[in-house]
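thought: fold this chain, then report.
action: predict
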Amino acid sequence: MSERFGGVVYDVDNTIYDHKTKRVPKLAQEALRRLEVPAMPATGRSYPLMLPLAEKGIRLTGLGSLDSGATIVDFDTKSVVWEKWLDPQQVSEVMRKVGGKCLDISTSTLKQRVSIDPKSIDERFAYGKKSPSVFAIYPLQEQAALQEILGDIDEVKSRFMRFENSTTRGCFQVTYAGIDKKHGVDMLLDMAGLKNERIVGIGDDYEGDGPFFAAVKAMKKKGITIAMGNADKRLKREADMVVAGVSDTPDGFTDAMRRLDLVDTDI
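observation:
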């Protein structure tokens, strides 16, 4: 085990999973498998959306922070060990108010992901389950209106992103207020017994990964933050290190693990 670091917290999309090729780079798969310390995802993905990554070569073990900090999952037991989820009324309110402006809306739980046609959402609609988040895809011209609508809903937090770098579509995720990747990573490291260890954090998206970078920096033993080569400029400015992109060979994750001597250089 590395004497310098106690674990690695990594973003998933466009960090370990390449949206252009729809794959996890072979070298990154091997780097994850050979890591000398625990590797823990911190992602906006829900549990159902993590499972396809196992089929693409990622070994999902131990703990992970999912749903942008709303859920801590134990992959070994396939169970939620901590959650801060929206109640059914909050889910329904978000869906009703934004439905007419969105192309797709979905909610996720540990066992299922439910996609709902926005055209079917009206004032009578009620979603009867708790959900860690509400995720939606929308035309970019609707962003200002959606931000105003979501800003009027109590006790929720919204995060807007480009949808797979699309020039015409965006996506947003709504979680309980106060929940973000910083909160999720704090909970994750506490549950993993790593609060007193030095941690590596790696990601690509400022809005999502910037908060968990702050968590890594705020620990008793100050960690190191790493921005992918394909990361946005704001995240690169805040990171301690910038590595290759997810589409490069070697990919940025493998590049980072090599530089930190967390994997053998023969990978």
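thought: worth noting. The CA atoms of residues 63 and 199 lie 15 Å apart.
final: tokens above.
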